[in-house]
Specification:
Layout: E1 11-14, H1 26-33, H2 37-48, H3 53-63, H4 69-78, H5 85-94, E2 98-106, H6 107-110, E3 120-124, H7 143-157, E4 164-168, H8 174-179, E5 182-186, E6 198-200, H9 205-216
Parallel strand pairs: 1-2, 1-4, 2-3, 4-5, 5-6
Length: 217
């Protein structure tokens, strides 16, 4: 089905919350395991209204004081992931390209995606679960950090932002979408209106990926 090689190598950059996880986020799925859905919904609303990512993390850390590794695993396994993630990443790598996940969500959640075949993951630096330390605010990523990490990955792989494809869904992806020429808005909200080259609504990452793969073939 796949395996048509473009002339230049590409770096595919994936958001997590709302993109790879459809209609939800790592924080929501973790909170669901703790019976704190209403509380995290209020915190998510605060984020939409201007709460900074580091303050969000501090408050979420307080909510999740009793979080266990088993609950993190259950949150990850039970999340509404898009279909075809492993297949897309396998095809990207088979073509000689690279793929990365850059997310504001906790790194202890994001790192689990390495087992699915992504080259590298980047999440906000949280203390290990169970928590015995506070949030270190400088380690919490924001929208500008996504751009910084993308540039660092490009430098490490010997690529340019012009060689990148970005997949995202919301305002935290807008700065990256402004940097990268080839973009896919995946089940996106209004913050990406007019910023993306491609748009996809649905439940299968293979279909979103096909928009970019076909345009490069």
């Amino acid at each position: 089905m796949f395996h048509v090689k473009p002339s230049t190598r590409r770096l595919h950059l994936f958001d997590l919350d709302g993109t790879l996880i459809r209609g939800s986020a790592a924080a929501v799925e973790i909170s669901r395991q703790l019976g704190l859905v209403e509380e995290i919904d209020a915190l998510e609303q605060g984020f939409l209204e201007g709460l900074t990512p580091d303050e969000f993390a501090v408050r979420a850390r307080d909510l999740w004081a009793e979080l266990t590794p088993e609950q993190v695993a259950a949150a990850f396994e039970g999340a509404p992931w898009l279909a075809g993630i492993r297949e897309v990443w396998a095809d990207i790598r088979a073509r000689g390209d690279r793929c990365a996940v850059i997310s504001l969500s906790p790194d202890f959640f994001v790192r689990r995606l390495l087992e699915w075949g992504v080259d590298t993951v980047h999440g906000s630096a949280w203390p290990s679960v169970p928590f015995h330390a506070p949030i270190h605010r400088p380690g919490i990523l924001n929208a500008a950090a996504k751009v910084r990490i993308a540039r660092e990955l490009c430098a490490g792989y010997g690529m340019d932002p012009a060689d990148c494809v970005a997949y995202g869904d919301s305002m935290s992806d807008a700065e990256l979408f402004a940097l990268v020429p080839d973009t896919v808005a995946v089940n996106a909200d209004h913050h990406l209106t007019g910023l993306s080259r491609h748009s996809y609504t649905g439940g299968d990452l293979r279909e979103a990926y096909a928009l970019v793969r076909n345009s490069a073939a």
